[in-house]
Amino acid sequence: MVSNCANPACATPLRYFRDGRLYQFEVKSLEKSGANPAALEDEVTPKRKSRHIWHFWLCGRCSPKLTLKFDQLHGLKLIPANVRLTQLRKSG
Q: Would you say residue 82 lies in a domain?
């Protein structure tokens, strides 16, 4: 559950959703199927996709200056709000 601002430099607690901006990201991961521990070590064990929804919140002071981007490989990133989407795609 979201409890504080996603900006690590800010410790503002979440009290109301009307203050700030809420973000939702779909996080996909690959997991090996099967409950057998020996099967987990087997490289040919089929993998299944696991899907999770994560929520993050930027408080009213941070949301005008920052935005959030989630990358499957690098995780959550704080991006200055004035950076354009095309610049984000170039930087990866």
A: yes
Residue 36 CA to its chain's centroid (Å): 30
Residue 35 placed within a domain: yes
Which residues, 6+ apart, have CB-to-CB distance to 81 below 8 Å?
Answer: 64, 65, 66, 67
pLDDT tens, position by position, 28-75 = 875 554 555 554 454 555 566 778 899 999 999 999 999 999 988 888
Say if pTM beats, i.e. exceeds, 0.85: no
Question: Tokens in use for 17?
Answer: 């959703």
Question: Alpha carbon of 5 to those of 11, 33, 43, 48, 70: distances in Å?
Answer: 6, 35, 40, 32, 16
In a domain, 37, yes or no: yes
Query: In this structure, what is the dihedral angle of CA atoms 16, 18, 19, 21, given to the nearest 10 degrees?
Result: 110
Helices (H), 27-75: 37-41
Q: Which residue has 């800010």 as its token pair?
A: 10
